[in-house]
Every structure is written in C-alpha cells, then in structure tokens.
C-alpha cells in the first residue's frame, strides 16, 4: 500500500526555540490538506542546534509522520551522540517510542489513504468547537493519541499545565517519562496497537507479541449503581437518617482525564457523612472503569502492492465492561490474510497512571477483572511513586548555548538585549550587527525569521544580496546612551573595506515605547586621494526577514506616493517599487488571523526603492537608498522605525 500522496519536509527550518515552536503549527495542518507524510528537519536545517534544543526536537520529531534528522553543510555534527550522553539518552528513548508505536502510525497511514484522515493533526481536531484548543501550540494528535510537549527551554513537559480537549484523556508512558520528552494521553473510548521496541523493522515478525492500549469511555450507568449502593448501605443507618433528616444530591462531571462526583447533603450525623464520602470514592473509581473502547490495526507485508489484491489484515478490536469484567475481543476483520498465531498483551488504562496488564491469544476473547477499591488505590500509588522516582533520577540535558567544535563558536557569545516598553530586541554585533530577535511583548509575537548567522535584520552596502556589511564584526560604540528621551539604545560600527564603515544606532524611545527606531549610515573614513575623496559605488540596503505566522492570512498593505492603495499577497512574485509607486513613507505586514500588523515607517526622501520578496513562510520588506559614491561630507543614510498596530 502506498499510504501517501506526497512527501513534505522543510529545508528552511532554523535552529531556534521559536522555529521549533512553529514546526507543529506548520506541519500538522499538512495532513488536513491531503499531505499526511510531513515533518520538519529534526534539529533544524540551518545553523547549529544546542543539546537541549536537539533533544526536545527529537522527542517530538520522532512522533511526526516524516521523521528525519537533517542539517545543512558547514554546521556542527547533528547526530544524537554529538550533544553529550544526556541528549543521546533522550534521543534513544524518543526513537524507541516511535518503533513501539509503528503499528499505530502505520494504521493511521492506512486511514489517511482510504479515508483522508490525517496522520498528525492539530489538537483542535479533537474538538473543533473549543476555541481554546486553536491557540494550543504545545500538542498535536496522532489519531486518538495526544502528544504534549514543552517548547520552553527552561520548562519540561512535566512542568506545563496541560490543556486537554473535553472528555476523558488518560496519561500513559512506556516507563520512559522524561522532562525533555513529550507526555502521552489516550482519548477515552480508544484502542491503539503497539509493538516491541525493535532496533529496525527488519527484526519484526508477524508472530511477535501484539499489544493494545485501552482507554474506556464514560458510561451513564454508574450513577444508578452508586445510588443503589448508597441506598443499600444507608438502610443500616435508617434510625440515624430519620433522626437527622438526611438529604443527598449527586452530580457527575467529566473533565480533563478524570470523572468527578460531587455530593451535597444536609444533616449533622458525622457517621453518615463519612459513609457517603466513602461511597463517593468508590463511585469515582467505578466511573474511571465504566464504558467501551474501539480501535483498528492494519497489517500487510509493507511493499504497497499486495494491499490492492486483498493481501492485508484489518482488525477492529473492541473492549466492553460488563459488571466488573472488561472483555477485549475482535469485532470485525477485513482482508485475505489469516490471523497470525501470537500472544495478545492488553494494557487497560485506569487513570492517574494506573494500568492493568493481561495476556491472552490474539483473536480470542480476553477478560480483565476490574480491581477493587483497595487494589486501585495501590495501583495509583505505585504508579505515582514510580513516576516520581524516575523523574528524580533522570539525567537532564544541560541547558547550554555553547556547542563544542569550531563551527559552534558563534553560540558562545551573548547577544546584546534591548528591552523596554513593548519591545525586546537581541543584537549580535560579531556577525553583521544583525538583529536576531524582534519580539513584541504585549502580543507575544516574534516577528523576525532568524538564526545567529543569517536572516533576521541585516543591512548591505550594495545592491547584491549579502554584500559587504552583513557578516563583518561590528564594535559596540555605546550602550544605554543617557540622552534625553532615550531609555534603551545601542550604537554599532563596522568596517566594510575600502575606507568605508557602517554606523547603526538602535533605540527604543522612553517617550514612545511602542516604537523602536533604527538609524543607519554608510560613511567614508579613509577614502584615497586618487579617487577625488569619493568611495566606490555603494547602496544602503535594509534587508529584514519577517516570519509569516499565518501565510494564507498575511499580506502587505500601503498607499503609494501617487495615492493608490496596494495589497500584496504571498502568491505575488517579487515586487520592486520605484518613483511614485513607492510606499508613501509607511507600509505594513498585516496578519488577519493574529489581529495585528507590523508597521514600518521611513523617510521617503531617503528611500529610492522598496522591494517585497516572498519566501517559504517569510517575507522581506527592503528599503534601498540611492546607489552612489560617498564622501566624508555625503554619507548615505536611512532612518526608519517599527510599531505593532492592532487591526480592526
């Protein structure tokens, strides 16, 4: 069977926590668009990853349909063992998880091929009516399996407050929980298959043990059962009830991954109240166990052809609770294959980490006796203790920004941070004086697409792409200038050869903290006498690369010098505006989904050309000065500013 229509991967992903955070947003919707085999380059394609970033990325990337580590030339080694033993262990656990879940993932590809159901989908796919899930950027779905990860370098998945869809979601692991690995939840009413932790699929055999994870859904009969238990037990307390005029009201709530019962009562007999609370605890345990579950397993020989001739086995498994026994059985089969003779291992999830294991033969009914209240309490207690012990003993990946090896040396330097009002900027003077981070604090939006040594905010000294000025080392001339009206300021200077220098000042004004300004100049310092005091031809070219958080909902808007209104969308080709077609001192990147626009204002008398270039999930809004020689008396200058504006 050929389970996909195409393959999509990223060749543009950079090594940063911001880009990794975007990976889930970028690739999960691909399944909704008919491209189920998709995934980012694990660790990021461009630049050098850090140990923690690579380990976290592998933990999530191992769960994506398309799983591959990949990086560009001239970067440090990006194998798991290149980042230390702690990162290597996390990567080993992540890949082991993938191999255990391959039966489930392969089945999801069958469903994608036959029904158009995505392999990986955004979390809101579980409940499209819940608006909170549409803003969740830490999780995604693999069928009924919810993968929840942390994209914050200083917080593991165990420290996050997990936002789950409505209904029952039971947590589980393979005795491999780790702060740098994502957490797993299985939706109530679901069964998913998993297998042994193979080193490679060539080790697999159809007669190997088959395992099923079962999470029962909620069921409406538990309330009557609890009420009957209460009635029977309280008959022994009839005299006390009459004396105290006791009244009981039970309410049932299902939220997150647990079912809860609430009791309201009147009366003062403490013995009766204790009795009610005891039965309430019993009721909660009964709720966790009530219900049904269903799931499928697709099997073929993996070559993609025999499927078309019926050479496969599609099995539907169901689990049903009757009294205190869960029956797991085959309800339906499809395909010409005979069922292999193999053992069946079922893990019944009970909530709060408690699991009941049972063994049988695949194809036969397997019965699981539900645990008593005391047994349930012990299972939960043991699970919590095991989880706590494991988390206390794991080796955490060190939070290092420096990577060993010459190619990672730029990460050992610390960017200069400007933070005031609504902006937080990061500048790296040692590589082109570039701005690598431009975060708008009120909206939490990172506008720049960048890594340390390329993209972000760059400036060139010529019309050629990446001409002198974007890679030279700049000197910090002054920091935090104490001038009137300035709260945060940075002044840089870089030698670009031929007696020329770049001067750049970046500042956030105290009297208007919504705006930050950049003033740039190309100045002549030591121009030879034979040139008449003038330099070579130069052009000050401002080249910022902005991230399109929502590419289909983003566009460029401005009024031209001639008064005409322009809206430029990503499907347009590269656009160059000169003369009266230039923006009249202001243009903006509008994100309709985000509800904000990034406004760029400039002195139109100093800007001779404006260029828009659309990339993959990016856009450049370039300002060009005139192209001419400069002297000490006639530098090239561009002054401009940025502000985020809410759109109506």
UniProtKB/TrEMBL annotation:
Pfam families documented for this protein: DUF5110, Glyco_hydro_31_2nd, Glyco_hydro_31_3rd
Coiled-coil annotated residue ranges, if any: none
Molecular functions per Gene Ontology: hydrolase activity, hydrolyzing O-glycosyl compounds
Domain Glycoside hydrolase family 31 TIM barrel: 15-108
Domain DUF5110: 287-349
KW Hydrolase (keyword) present: yes
Domain Glycosyl hydrolase family 31 C-terminal, chain residue ranges per copy: 116-192
Keywords: Glycosidase, Hydrolase
InterPro entries for this protein: DUF5110, GH, Glyco_hydro_31_C, Glyco_hydro_31_TIM, Glyco_hydro_b
Top-rank lineage group of the source organism: Eukaryota
Biological process annotations from GO: carbohydrate metabolic process
Gene3D superfamilies linked to this entry: Glycosidases (3.20.20.80), Golgi alpha-mannosidase II (2.60.40.1180)
Family: Belongs to the glycosyl hydrolase 31 family.
Name the record gives this protein: Glucosidase
Organism per entry: Escallonia herrerae
């Amino acid at each position: 069977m050929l389970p996909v229509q195409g393959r999509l991967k990223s060749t543009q992903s950079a090594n940063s926590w911001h880009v990794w955070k975007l990976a889930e947003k970028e690739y999960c919707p691909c399944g909704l668009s008919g491209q189920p085999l998709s995934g980012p380059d694990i660790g990021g394609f461009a630049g050098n990853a850090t140990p923690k970033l690579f380990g976290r990325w592998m933990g999530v990337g191992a769960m994506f349909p398309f799983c591959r580590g990949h990086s560009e030339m001239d970067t440090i080694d990006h194998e798991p063992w290149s980042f230390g033993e702690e990162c290597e262990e996390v990567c080993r656990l992540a890949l082991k998880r993938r191999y255990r879940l391959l039966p489930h993932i392969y089945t999801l590809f069958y469903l994608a091929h036959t029904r158009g159901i995505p392999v990986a989908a955004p979390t809101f796919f579980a409940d499209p009516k819940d608006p909170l899930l549409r803003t969740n950027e830490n999780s995604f779905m693999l069928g009924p399996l919810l993968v929840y990860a942390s994209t914050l370098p200083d917080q593991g998945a165990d420290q996050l407050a997990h936002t789950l869809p409505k209904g029952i979601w039971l947590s589980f692991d393979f005795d491999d929980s780790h702060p740098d690995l994502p957490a797993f939840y299985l939706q109530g009413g679901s069964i998913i298959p998993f297998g042994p932790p193979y080193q490679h699929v060539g080790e697999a055999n159809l007669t190997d043990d088959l395992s099923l994870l079962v999470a029962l859904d909620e069921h409406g009969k538990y309330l009557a059962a609890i009420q009957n238990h209460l009635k029977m037990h309280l008959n022994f307390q009839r005299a006390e009830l009459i004396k105290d005029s006791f009244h009981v009201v039970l309410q049932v709530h299902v939220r997150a991954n647990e079912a809860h019962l609430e009791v309201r009562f009147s009366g003062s007999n403490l013995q009766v109240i204790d009795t009610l609370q005891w039965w309430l605890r019993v009721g909660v345990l009964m709720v966790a166990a009530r219900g049904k579950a269903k799931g499928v397993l697709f099997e073929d020989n993996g070559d993609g052809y025999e499927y078309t001739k019926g050479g496969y086995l599609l099995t539907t498994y169901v689990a049903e609770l009757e009294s205190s026994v869960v029956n797991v059985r085959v309800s339906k089969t499809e395909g010409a294959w005979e069922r292999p003779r193999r053992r069946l291992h079922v893990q019944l999830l009970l909530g709060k980490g408690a699991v009941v294991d049972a063994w049988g033969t695949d194809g036969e009914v397997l019965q699981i006796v539900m645990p008593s209240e005391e047994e349930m309490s012990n299972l939960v207690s043991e699970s919590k203790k095991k989880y706590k012990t494991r988390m206390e003993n794991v080796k955490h990946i060190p939070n290092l920004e420096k990577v060993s090896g010459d190619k990672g040396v730029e990460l050992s330097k610390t960017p200069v941070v400007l933070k005031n009002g609504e902006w937080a900027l990061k500048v790296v003077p040692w590589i082109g004086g570039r701005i690598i981070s431009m975060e708008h604090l009120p909206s939490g939006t990172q506008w720049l697409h960048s890594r340390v040594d390329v993209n972000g905010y760059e400036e060139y000294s010529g019309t050629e792409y990446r001409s002198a000025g974007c890679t030279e080392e700049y000197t910090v001339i002054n920091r935090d200038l104490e001038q009137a009206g300035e709260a945060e300021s940075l002044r840089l200077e870089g030698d670009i050869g031929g007696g020329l220098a770049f001067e750049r000042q970046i500042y956030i004004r105290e009297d208007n903290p919504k705006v930050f300004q950049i003033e740039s100049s190309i100045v002549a310092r030591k121009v030879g006498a034979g040139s008449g005091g003038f330099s070579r031809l130069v052009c000050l070219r401002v080249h910022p690369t902005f991230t399109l958080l929502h590419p289909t909902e983003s566009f460029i808007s401005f009024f031209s010098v001639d008064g005409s209104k322009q809206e430029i969308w990503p499907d347009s080709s590269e656009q160059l505006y000169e003369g009266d077609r230039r923006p009249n001192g202001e243009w903006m990147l509008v994100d309709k989904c985000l509800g904000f626009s990034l406004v760029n204002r400039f002195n139109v008398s100093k800007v001779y050309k404006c260029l828009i270039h659309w990339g993959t999930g990016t856009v450049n809004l370039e300002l060009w000065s005139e192209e001419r020689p400069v002297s000490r008396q006639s530098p090239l200058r561009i002054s401009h500013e940025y502000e985020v504006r809410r759109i109506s």
